[in-house]
Amino acid sequence: MGRQTAKMYDDDDLKGYGIFTVKHVFRGKECPRYTELNGHVKDLTNVTVRRVEAGVYATRTSTKCNLTDALIDSYLPLHYYFYGQEVRMNRTIPIMLFTTKMPAEHRCDYTHQLQFYLPLVNHTNYPDPTEESRVQVTAKQEECFVVYHWIGKITTQATYNNYFNLKTNLTDSDSFNLAYNENKFAHARYDPSCRPGARHEIWIPLDSCPGAAESSSSD
Fold first, then answer.
1. Exposure check for the chain: N or C terminus, fewer CB within 10 A?
2. Going by C-beta distance under 8 Å and a sequence separation of 6 or more, which residues neighbour residue 124?
3. Domains of the chain by residue range
4. Mind listing the pLDDT tens digit for each residue in 97-117?
5. In which band, very low, low, confident or very high, does the pLDDT at 197 lie, cut at 50, 70 and 90?
6. Are 111 and 176 in contact (CB under 8 A)?
7. Helix crossing, 156-172 with 67-82: angle to 10°?
């Protein structure tokens, strides 16, 4: 099945508000459509506010408490879902591992859900996952995140360190004043950690997306 590359769009309503559309292909692989909103984190390096368009995702919630164990537990079922015997879908990026802090009485301090974005051409034409795989296909509405990116290798401790450092920096920032989810984040992986120049991101969900009028003009 051939891949359909997401087309960039030009929305006149967004002009003049520091909002620009990002190309939806990275290293030759399709990724979710999104725009970046300038002006909310001017004093933070490698941090942006990102509005991700509605899309369809294959997800799997792990029973493992450890972040790395959860990634290993869910990766292959999602990988094999994309490379099924009947239908083969093109792989996309990033790999998103969402981590949620749980109440004290829960058996895990954190729970983890891995998700792969479905190619645009498969949003209305995707194979049914098997019951044994525990993979689910979910349509998600538009969401906004504050995103920090870095280049290099990654460990479980580094993931949590970057997450907590980002939260601290948001609290100390003079320009950031958006409400966000205090108990949930995602680690987005664009490359294998062993690849030189591997790109990683921490995504923290915002409570709501800022409107165009709240965004500053481009320089």
1. C
2. none
3. 1-219
4. 999 999 999 999 999 999 999
5. confident
6. no
7. 100
